[in-house]
């Protein structure tokens, strides 16, 4: 079966523009996570969705960041008024349930803000 | 305070040798899980091994084993008989709290290079 997919794979945007990053989790996986990886750094948790529960947004760095998950499947991470410090690889992961400890990661979207 | 500490930014090992990647963690929660992920140059994160805080035995998965020392709060990854394909970044991560809260906290990573 298909793994987690993300689009676009690369995105270059000008400072101040809004961007949308898409994540398509593995079919049937109810839990979905967004992480950010800055150059040479570990992953930083951003947001977590589990089924129809309210998302855990505790990792979002500012109110310019938001995410939604429609129909319990595809998720979109939106960054408004992008800043240069937003440049990073944004990784999405999914797991079968919130109790499943193995998270399957997508290939990431490399965002560059110029 | 750093929750996950990986003190080795880089490691160089000869092929076929065993290698230990260090990881220490900090938590006051009695229930937690520890993970190791591999990130090759392609960028994808590959799950390697998991250790639960209540697990009595050290986790093993093929050539990977996790040396879990609870009192010392360490969870080192041991790779036996290293191969050239093991060259990658390796991240230690922790999940705190109840089973349903799967947010992971990652360390800074160790870049492992296997020399032929």
Low-confidence sequence ranges of chain B? none
Share of residues in strands of chain A: over 45%
The strand count of chain A comes to 10
Low-confidence stretches of chain A: none
Query: Roughly what percent helix of chain A?
Result: under 10%
Overall shape of chain A: it is globular
Oligomer: heterodimer
Number of helices of chain B: 0
Structural write-up:
The complex is a heterodimer of chains A (114) and B (116). By secondary structure, chain A is mostly beta strands. Helices cover 0% and strands 46% of the residues of chain A. Chain A has no helices and 10 strands. In chain A, β4 (31-37) and β5 form a beta hairpin. The model of chain A has no long low-confidence stretch (mean pLDDT 91). In chain B, the strands form 3 sheets. In chain B, strands 2, 5, 6, 10, 11 and 12 form a 6-stranded mixed sheet that branches. A 4-stranded antiparallel sheet of chain B has the order 3-9-8-7, with no helix packed on it. In chain B, β7 and β8 form a beta hairpin. Chain B is globular and about 40 Å long. At the A-B interface, β4, β5, β8 and β9 of A face β5, β6, β10 and β11 of B.
Give a short overview.
The complex is a heterodimer of chains A (114) and B (116). Chain A is mainly beta and 114 residues long.
List the keywords:
heterodimer; A: 114 residues; mainly beta; four-stranded antiparallel sheet; 46% strand; B: 116 residues; six-stranded mixed sheet
């Amino acid at each position: 079966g298909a793994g987690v997919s993300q689009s676009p794979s690369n995105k270059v945007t000008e400072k101040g523009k809004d961007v949308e990053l898409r994540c398509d989790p593995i079919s049937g996986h109810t839990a979905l996570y967004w992480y950010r990886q800055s150059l040479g750094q570990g992953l930083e948790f951003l947001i977590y969705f589990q089924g129809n529960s309210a998302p855990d947004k505790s990792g979002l760095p500012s109110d310019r960041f938001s995410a939604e998950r429609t129909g319990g499947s595809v998720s979109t991470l939106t960054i408004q008024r992008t800043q240069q410090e937003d440049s990073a690889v944004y990784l999405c992961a999914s797991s079968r349930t919130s109790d499943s400890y193995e998270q399957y990661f997508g290939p990431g979207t490399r965002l560059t803000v110029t | 305070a750093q929750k996950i500490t990986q003190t080795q930014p880089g490691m160089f090992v000869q092929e076929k040798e065993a290698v230990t990647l260090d990881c220490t963690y900090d938590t006051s929660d009695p229930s937690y899980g520890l993970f190791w992920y591999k990130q090759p140059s392609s960028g994808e994160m590959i799950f390697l091994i998991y250790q639960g805080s209540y697990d009595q035995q050290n986790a093993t998965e093929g050539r990977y084993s996790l040396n879990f020392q609870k009192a010392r709060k360490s969870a080192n990854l041991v790779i036996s008989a290293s191969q050239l394909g093991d060259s990658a970044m390796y991240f230690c991560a922790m999940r705190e709290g109840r089973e349903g809260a799967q947010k992971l906290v990652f360390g800074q990573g160790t870049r492992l290079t296997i020399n032929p």
